């Protein structure tokens, strides 16, 4: 299945639960530095696009493009693996929680490097840290197996040498309903509307998701979840492995 076809299916109603969190946005925008022109690869509905720069969005799904706000940057239907831009044509290329859906991640990252004069910025998670998230570790064994053995530095290597990995803790009240956003609000995962906005749940076997939801509901109702994860409830933010990856290029 192509990336466009995937999000034509997964992206229906995406903006119901997925929206920009200002704290994560600040980390991404800071990483863009002095870039005046930016391409957002796998731009989706437009979250995290800086409003103070000239920006072009690349998105393969018409369903996602239709959910972009009226004042968003223009979007071109294309894929990460074949960006319709000339070499060194923008100051920076960015990608936010999208490269795991590309048909060829390495090729897409090399395309970001090709078109960016100054830097590439990718927001993604470190699998070695994400494996220890309570939802993954204790409820979703298939997803846990998929993460095992993967290393973010290796996945990002096509961006070039000397990569910087900036940790981005997830706040307890994160506005963007991605997979780890509800780490201190576990009942949110019982809501099918929340799960519909999280590709992990849409791509795992339905019977495993149903079992996980039933177990989580039972643990919450019995108080077992709160006893098991009491330390989580005391935190305002949590490192779930999310990183802003920055690759700097010679001007």
Structure description:
This protein has 251 residues and is an alpha/beta fold. The chain is 35% helix and 18% strand. The chain is built from twelve helices and nine strands. The strands form two sheets. A seven-stranded mixed β-sheet has the order 3-2-1-4-5-9-6. The N and C termini lie far apart (37 Å).
Set out the fold topology:
Layout: H1 3-10, H2 22-32, E1 37-41, E2 54-58, H3 62-65, E3 75-76, E4 90-96, H4 105-115, E5 116-125, H5 127-130, H6 134-139, H7 141-147, H8 152-156, E6 164-167, E7 170-171, H9 192-196, H10 199-203, H11 206-222, H12 224-228, E8 237-238, E9 242-248
Parallel strand pairs: 1-2, 1-4, 2-3, 4-5
Antiparallel strand pairs: 5-9, 6-9, 7-8
Keywords:
251 residues, alpha/beta, Rossmann fold, 7-stranded mixed β-sheet, two-stranded antiparallel sheet, 12 helices, 9 strands, globular
What structural class do helix, strand and pairing data support?
Answer: alpha/beta
Strand percentage lies at 15-25%
Rg (C-alpha, Å): 18 Å
Q: Give, in spatial order, the strands making up the sheet with the most strands.
A: 3-2-1-4-5-9-6
Low-confidence stretches: none
Tell me the series of helices and strands, N- to C-terminal.
HHEEHEEHEHHHHEEHHHHEE
Assembly type of the shown chains? single chain
Estimate the mean pLDDT confidence: 93
Report the CATH topology name.
Answer: Rossmann fold
* Total number of helices: 12
The CATH superfamily is Vaccinia Virus protein VP39
Task: Tell me the CATH architecture.
Answer: 3-Layer(aba) Sandwich
How many β strands by DSSP? 9
Please tell me what the overall shape is: globular
- The CATH first-level class comes to Alpha Beta
Number of domains: 1
Biggest β-sheet description: 7 strands, mixed
